[in-house]
Amino acid sequence: MVKIRQDRPQRRNAWASLLVALVAAVGTFIGWRLWPVEEAVVARQRDIRDIAVTWECLSGHRFEARGACTPAVCPQGNEPADIVLPCECPRHGRIEAFVRYEPDEAGRPRPAQARFRHGPWRPVDDCIRCPTCNQPCRTGPLMSWPVAPRTPGG
After folding, report:
1. CA 17 distance to own-chain centroid
2. pLDDT tens digits, 100-139
3. Residue 48 and residue 76: Cα distance in Å, rounded?
4. Which of 105, 140, 144, 146 minimizes the number of CB atoms within 10 Å of its CB?
5. Residue 29 phi, psi dihedral angles, 5° rounding
6. Residue 110 lies in a domain
7. Is residue 121 in some structural domain?
């Protein structure tokens, strides 16, 4: 005859398993919080201060110099000069705008004001606009802030 034994519940093993799981979870959490975090690498974008641009003073003298958020001084006449930005209107073709840059909240230069020849300075909101038809103008690839939307057929 075989004696059948009533198994007692293995409570001691269950508590040990639970304790090991809790220790592993707490150790993982502490390790995750203490592990050194590397900062996300963000590519530095080139801005107007990193490139040479064409400047023109009030007397019409043109010169090349590094871009800036303040007007440059003409080396020939000691007059203030502004950046000349070639633009292209879908209707009127190539035109030149005089642009003044200001730093935005992040400290990056953005076009703030633009004028054409001896016209008034106008704020630049979303793009530089043609003085005749008010269409958005396209700018060169080095100075494509802000990006003007392309128009169909343009």
Report:
1. 52
2. 988 888 888 888 898 888 888 888 887 888 888 888 888 8
3. 23
4. 105
5. -65, -45
6. yes
7. yes
Residue 27 falls inside a structural domain: no
| Three-class SS of the chain | CCCCCCCCCCHHHHHHHHHHHHHHHHHHHHHHHHCCCCCCCCCCCCCHHHCEEEEEECCCCEEEEECCCCCEECCCCCCEEEEEEEEEECCCEEEEEEEEEEECCCCCEEEEEEECCCCCCEECCCCCECCCCCCECEECHHHCCCCCCCCCCC
The residue segments making up the domain with residue 72 are 48-143
Identify the residue with better confidence: 153 or 19: 19
Let me know if residue 15 belongs to a domain: no
* Residue appearing with tokens 């169909």: 152
Residue type present at position 49: R
pLDDT at 145 over 50: no
Number of structural domains (the chain) is: 1
| Of 21-25, 43-47, 91-95, minimum mean pLDDT range | 43-47
How far is residue 140's CA from residue 57's CA, in Å, rounded to a whole number? 21
